[in-house]
Amino acid sequence: MQLDDEELRKVLSQNIKSARLSSNLTQEGLAELSNISTNFLKDVEGCRSGVSLLSLINICHALDITPNQLLKDFFVKSYEQSLDLTQQINLLNDYQKDIMYALLEHFKNNDSHN
Predict the structure, then answer these.
(1) To pair with 80 at 20 to 30 A between CA atoms, which of 32, 37, 65, 73?
(2) How far apart are CA 74 and CA 101, in angstroms?
(3) Who's near 68: CB < 8 A, 6+ residues apart?
């Protein structure tokens, strides 16, 4: 999946605002807990500014959430595909699972694209 800065800012701004509201925090309260200015938080939530990794971690600590929770929207398809693959493999018999494992090891050890 190809991402761009604008899309990332949009998702982060929505998820930060949503998490802040769920935590019953004002922008001022979250800014203070995150050690950032209220104006900067307003710009982040308004999708007018990006956020540094340090500020993102501080916001997550203040909201008592993980960065994964703020970025989850970018990985839904990947997660669903992994879950589907796991479910498909679980339907196989032991012999078929052994073959799948051998194939995975082969691809992992002979991957010329990395």
Answers:
(1) 65
(2) 28
(3) none
